[in-house]
Amino acid sequence: MIMILMMSSLQQYLEDYGEKDYWDERYVKDIVKRPHFDWYHGYKTLKPFLQKFFKRQDKIMMLGCGNSALGEDMNLDHYLDIVNIDFSSVIIQDMIERTKGRVGLEYLTMDGRNMEFPNEYFDSIFDKGTIDAVMCSDSDNQNAVKMVAEVARVLKPGGYFVVMTYGAPEGRMPLFQVADYNWSIEMRMLGTHENAQMNECHYAYILKKNNIIIENGDAASSTDDNDTDTNQEEEFKVYLNSSIGKVPLEIIPIVK
Predict the structure, then answer these.
(1) Residue 36, class by beta-carbon neighbours within 10 Å (0-12 exposed, 13-18 middle, 19+ buried)?
(2) Which of 139, 149, 167, 225 lies 20 to 30 Å (CA to CA) from residue 14?
(3) Is 202 strand, coil or helix?
């Protein structure tokens, strides 16, 4: 009976992660006790990884930014066009006040399932735990489906949507593998040392939106034959076994 009650309590706790009221209440407390909190890892640790996909001149969106310092830290590192969105007006107002006077750093109250941006607006988009939170209270995944569809809409051809998550392929690939989104998908594991096991790592899904070319009046997707992105040239020493086969382990040493 105790175990059942504990499991029920945990389930309710996780379901709250997808609710706006939960986050508003939590952020009211965090503003005083913990102004910044980064899920999984902060910018110093993630910098070498993110630099492979995000250029400093890119227009970048942080999806579900919360009170993460990631956007601020990237802005300090000369990324000068960062848009942070979150559906909690509580935390957005606090982040606006906290970063007042900063150039190239914008905070907007916005629901990732229904964004107000025009099509093909961003060069790159990063999600670190937002889809995870949404899926905690999303029994049929429809909220996550809407969010990914919106990302596909506002991402420019040639742009990257990078997702850092605890979600294994069987739970995330169905969200991403939609033909209409017209993107290629790469998966790798992010671990802090070369002996890291699967349960010590985070999944990274790297989705690159393909360019559309018109031939004889017909549209077709194409990747650039001259594409020399760093991630395409990388060689990995360690591969881990996942539910979809071997995937490369990328080492991201913790930097404090």
Answers:
(1) middle
(2) 149
(3) strand
Q: CATH homologous superfamily of domain 38-251?
A: Vaccinia Virus protein VP39 (3.40.50.150)
Q: Which residue has the tokens 């399932």?
A: 113
pTM: 0.87
Q: Encode burial over 40-61: b for 16+ CB neighbours within 10 A, e otherwise.
A: bbbbebbbebbebbbeeebbbb
Provide the pLDDT for residue 35: 79
Distance of CA 100 to the CA centre of its chain: 25
**Cα 87 to chain centroid, rounded:** 15
Give the integer Cα–Cα distance in Å for 223 and 233: 15
159 beta partners: none
Q: Tell me if 97 sits within 8 A of 122, measured CB to CB.
A: no
Rg (CA), the chain: 19
pLDDT tens per residue, range 186-219: 999 999 999 999 999 999 999 999 986 544 545 5
Which sign, positive or negative, has the C-alpha torsion 209, 84, 82, 72?
negative
Cα–Cα distance measured from residue 173 to residue 166, given in angstroms and rounded to the nearest whole number:
13
> Which positions ≥6 away from 188 have C-beta within 8 Å?
204, 206, 236, 247, 248, 249, 250
Question: 211-256, pLDDT tens digit by residue?
Answer: 865 445 455 555 554 444 444 568 899 999 998 899 999 999 999 8
Helices (H) and strands (E) in the chain, counts: 9, 11
Question: Amino acid letter at 37?
Answer: F
The residue ranges of every structural domain in the chain are 38-251
